[in-house]
Amino acid sequence: MSYEPPTPPANLPTEIVNTLNELDPERLRDVATYAEALAEHKEREARLEEAADQDEVEERPGDLPDDVPSKATITIKEINDNRYYYWQWRDGDKVRSQYKGPVNSDE
Q1: Closest Cα partner for 45 from 78, 89, 1?
Q2: Which of 39, 86, 89, 92 has its C-alpha lying 20 to 30 A from 77's C-alpha?
């Protein structure tokens, strides 16, 4: 492990670097956890938006509940160290989710 502080990415704004440099290790870990979750959320939103923009209508999957639109995608959420499948789709400005079932550890 190096005794030198890490070099921040060149594209990170100076005010963010300065703010991060003032935080204690616990707060930095909180920021890292939040940043990772936010990045995953934004990537998921982009995927859902991209899927909604597709003109091609695919066949409705057989296991899709009646109250879930055919444009829904399956995502995995981790809750209390357990993983679950959820149907997820965009409804206007909101992202909706519906529980599908637990992730099978054999898969």
Answers
A1: 89
A2: 92
